[in-house]
Amino acid sequence: MEGLSPGKFPFERISRNLARLKLIEKQVAYIVDEKDFAERNVISRFLDHLKDLIEIEKEDELRFADAMEAIKQKLEELFPDKIEQQEGVDVAAAFQSAEAQVRKATEDRDLSIEFVPPDPVMIVMQPQILMSVLLGLVRNAVENTPDQGKVVVKGERTADGYRITVRDHGTGIPESEQPNIFEGFYPVQETDLYSSGRRYAFNAGGTGTDLLKIKLFSERFGFNISFKSRRCPWIPTPRDICPGDISRCSYCTTPEDCYKNGGTEFVVDIPPERLAIDQEAVA
């Protein structure tokens, strides 16, 4: 056609997205057929393809181009395509930054939140990924720990690499709900029983996307996330509610009584290949 250049047609990108639509079709077929296709795998693949789809929409909807570019940049920040091999994170600095943010966000909570000085190490990972993991796990711990409770964050070298642990002495996760917590959009407690929903408030509730995001990161960037939890025996089911303050619990005389009843520990194991070779700079 006159006035049109073949170079203006993004044939290669259209072809890629047709292939991706076929992939999505196959994934939907797996779900419809009730085959084992984890929700997080679908989400991970969707994130991989979303940036190109945004590029197409930017060309078709010029009035939204700036907004879409901002979304794309945020996605690249939160979900980078790969680990930059030359980039390293000082764990001690990450702990200090996370602690400062958590202290500010929990000023209205009566909690003991201890960031134990971590064993020094450099981790080959974008800083925002490690910070997202740290803050997500600490926020989850704080929101499930009543006032006068305790949360402890540690970073330790191990024979198999490096381990970060976030341990709360809170309500714990009912055993029946534990298999589902990494799947996302799955509330551990009945949603009508949640409190205000404010971040870091006790029993704030939420969609569970922090844990889903951390699980996605673990699969994409080669570390392991696991947990163990014991539900407080005085509130055994998702419909049983902790009063939110140990001093108001009829089953506890001291905070230590509560600490013995329940709690959850999340463990992030980072393999040795994700640690910088030269550790002397932070030793």
In short, what is this structure?
The protein has 283 residues and is an alpha+beta fold. It contains seven helices and seven strands; from the N terminus they run H-H-H-E-H-E-E-H-E-E-H-E-H-E.
Structure in words:
By secondary structure, the protein is of the alpha+beta class. It has helices at about 10-30, 40-60, 65-80, 90-105, 125-145, 210-220, 255-260; strands at about 90, 110-115, 120-125, 150-160, 160-170, 225-230, 265-270. The strands form 2 sheets. The protein has a 5-stranded mixed β-sheet. It has a two-stranded antiparallel ribbon with strand order 1-3. α1 (about 10-30) runs antiparallel to α2, α2 packs antiparallel against α3 (about 65-80) and α5 packs antiparallel against α6 (about 210-220).
Radius of gyration: 22 Å
Strand order of the largest sheet: 2-4-5-7-6
Uncertain segments = 30-37, 190-194, 278-283
C-alpha end-to-end distance: 67 Å
**Helix segment tally:** 7
At the fourth CATH level, what is the homologous superfamily of the largest domain? Histidine kinase-like ATPase, C-terminal domain
Number of β-strand runs: 7
The first-level CATH class of the largest domain is given as: Alpha Beta
Measured as a percent range, the helix fraction is: 25-40%
Apparent shape: globular
Number of domains: 2
User: What class do helices, strands and sheet pairing give?
Assistant: alpha+beta
